Amino acid sequence: MKKTIKDISVAGKKVLVRVDFNVPLNDKQEVTNDKRIVAALPTINYLLEQKAAVILMSHLGRPKGKVVSAMSLKPAAKRLGELIKKDVVMAPDCIGPEVAKMSKDLKSGEVLLLENLRFHPQEEKNDDAFAKELASFGEVFIQDAFGTVHRVHASTAGMTKYIKDAAAGFLVEKELQFLGEALNNAKKPFLAILGGAKVSDKIKVIDNLLGKVDSLVIGGAMAYTFLKAQGIGTGKSLVEEDKLDLARELLKKAEAKKVKMLLPIDHIITDKIDFENKKAGDGAKISETPDAEVPAGFMGVDIGQMTLKRIAPVILSAKTIVWNGPAGVFEIPEFSKGTVEIAKLVAQATESGAVSVIGGGDSVSAVKKAGVDKKVTHVSTGGGASLEFLEGIELPGIAVLPEK
Ligand code: AMP
Question: Burial code of 28-61, b = ≥16 C-beta within 10 A, e = fewer?
Answer without folding.
Answer: eeebeebebbebbbbbbebbbebebbbbbbbbbe
